[in-house]
Amino acid sequence: MPKESWKIKLKAAQPDELAALLIQSGASGAEIESSDFLSCYVYCTEAEARDYIKKAVQQGAKFSSIEKLLEENWVALCEDVWKTRVVEKFTIRLVSEAFEEIMQPNSENQILIIPGTGFGTGHHASTELALKLLQQEEISKNPPITALDVGTGSGILAIACEKLYASKIIAFDNDFCALRNATENIHLNHCQNIEIFAGEIDALFCRKYDLIFANIYAEVLIAMQKQFSALSNTGSRLILSGIRNDLKDAVFNAFMEGNWTCLRAEEKDGWAAFLLNALS
Q: Which GO terms describe its molecular function (predicted)?
């Protein structure tokens, strides 16, 4: 059976995370089309394309369609999938291997990411919103000395924080596969101030942080409200992202009932994010 170019459309709750998984499995690229749809591009036999669909469904995705592509369309689509993203001052570029960095001189305004199982390539609205809030004056006018990245995924937010503020950062996750991806990206971007931590967040209560950021499920954010308070000083800032619009009021109310005030709120493509300040 000959190899051909295929476009597979899928519905997923976390399309950015599924896109990274499919790319790691051999897909040539994946395009986030909305808050819950993505298209995966593969060059393989039809039977192998069906295997990609099975893998996605096993991860909780729903199959929408499969389309055979003309060769000239395939080249253009792959170039679009891997194009750079710009979020405020940052240019985010996906690379397939660490050695590509040699051809891309590192700078304080560029973030290089190798897609893997760690969430966060800059293509998903929730990651973009968190990156945008990280660069606002409510943080930049009083740069954080210490920061905590909860659910670091690919490490993109920790990398951005070091490039912006030279903070001492703990990048925390309980997914060891994600942490391997984060470690790879941290080294790729020549970061020196990021410490990887695997385990339970309660082990971090021995210190407090000037800034905490978390791009994770809304339900988890609500459940962690008291833990975020315990990790914060008066005046510490907290970025919450990964919040679907239908859950933004629930997240907002949960934190307003705690010791937090809202400094800024952002929305994009069906997702919301908040920048909060700890009152006490």
A: protein methyltransferase activity
Residue span of the structural domain in which 120 resides: 85-278
User: Could you tell me the CATH number of the domain that includes residue 146?
Assistant: 3.40.50.150
CA dist., res. 185 & res. 241, Å (int) = 21
| Helices assigned H by DSSP within the chain | 15-24, 46-58, 71-81, 125-134, 137-140, 156-165, 176-188, 218-223, 225-230, 248-256
Residues 6+ apart with CB under 8 A from 60: 12, 13
pTM of the model: 0.75
What per-residue confidence (pLDDT) applies to 239?
98
Which residues, given as ranges, of the chain have pLDDT below 70?
1, 71-82, 96-106, 116-121
pLDDT of residue 19: 80
Q: Are residues 154 and 187 in the same domain?
A: yes
User: According to the model, what pLDDT value does residue 123 have?
Assistant: 72
* 122, 239: one domain: yes
Q: Tell me, yes or no, whether 114 and 218 share the same domain.
A: yes
Task: Answer yes or no: are the C-beta atoms of 169 and 193 closer than 8 Å.
Answer: yes
Strands 260-268 and 232-244: unpaired
pLDDT recorded at residue 71? 56
Domain boundary among 51, 81, 111: 81
